[in-house]
User: What shape does this take?
Amino acid sequence: MKEVLILKQMKCNSTVQLIKNSFRTGYKYKCSDIVFEFNRIFEILKIHPNKPIRGETIRDYFDADPCKIGKKRERGYLLNAPLL
Assistant: This one.
């Protein structure tokens, strides 16, 4: 619901707001989930990034530490605090 309100306002910082709305500090996210969510947000906003989106892209927006997640020990990131 909050995403709809952000999109209606479409201010210059809507990218950061949508990313903060999708990810929460204190949680772990798999790299594949991070890439999927960034692609979804950028597609909504019609943004075409200059470099490929990877799991580590989350570090542009959050203080994050690499970690392993689940039984399969998939690569991911633990989000500590927002940077912006």
